[in-house]
Amino acid sequence: MGKKQKIRKKEEERLYQLISRQKEKCQRQEELLAKSIDPSDEVLTQMKMEEAKYRFLLREARRLKKQI
Question: Is the pLDDT of residue 68 over 80?
């Protein structure tokens, strides 16, 4: 296995870990929002930002799969 392949594999693993953590974070926030009576605008904005980060990471993973 070449040096580039090792680096690519390591970065892919890192990306998958980030995706997993971000997914868990989004799920926790969704649960909190579901339990919340009247969530503030700041909390809703934060939730949307976390979802956007998660979607971005998923798109990056798809893009990497197409390149390989």
Answer: no
Per DSSP, the three-state class of 2 is coil
Distances (CA, A) of 21 to 12, 15, 40, 66: 14, 10, 24, 23
Left, alpha or beta for 7 (phi > 0: left; psi -120 to 50: alpha)?
alpha
State the residue for tokens 């990306």. Answer: 15
For residue 33, which of 21, 22, 20, 46 has the smallest C-alpha distance?
A: 46
Asked if 44 and 9 count as a contact pair (C-beta separation under 8 A), the reply is no
State the DSSP code for 68: -
Question: Where does the pLDDT of residue 49 fall: very low under 50, low under 70, confident under 90, or very high at 90 and above?
Answer: very high
